[in-house]
Amino acid sequence: MPSFTQILIALGAAGSALAAPLASNGLAERSQTFTGDITYYQPGLGACGQTNSDSENVVAMSPSEFQGNCGKTITITKDGKTATAKVVDKCPSCASGSIDVSSTVFQSLVDLAVGRTTVTWSFD
């Protein structure tokens, strides 16, 4: 018969296996796919400390996905079209999973007149 300690260890291992996949730093695994709204903005001096322009493929992320991801790239998908963008800024008003991109990125996926739509994306 297993001891109380062995049962606790087994339960802890089972709970860990059921938890969402996290890297050792607590951030979501890169293979995770996010779904959210995409909008566009005019880049400038971003929260990562660099200045970017609208002609660059850049993205601002919601506070929940931004932390620790400056300089990382993401791949965004909409109706079979894909675009990549570099994380350069935080979007305080974006909900988790939503992103704000340069108009260059936005119009490679959908017409600017749309203004807001839903996409999926993941870290590269």
Structure, described:
InterPro entries: Expansin_CellWall, RlpA-like_sf. This is RlpA-like protein double-psi beta-barrel domain-containing protein. Keywords: Signal. This protein starts with a helix and ends with a strand. It is globular. Strands 1-5-2-4-3-6 form a six-stranded mixed beta barrel. The protein has 124 residues and is of the alpha/beta class. The longest helix has 15 residues. 21% of the residues lie in helices and 31% in strands. A hairpin with a 2-residue loop joins strand 3 and strand 4. It contains three helices and six strands, in the order H-E-E-H-E-E-E-H-E. The chain has one domain: Beta Barrel (Barwin-like endoglucanases), CATH 2.40.40.10.
Concise summary:
With 124 residues, this protein is α/β, with parallel strands linked by helices. The protein has helices spanning 4-18, 63-66, 103-109; strands at 33-40, 58-61, 73-78, 81-90, 99-101, 117-123. A hairpin with a 2-residue loop joins strand 3 (73-78) and strand 4 (81-90).
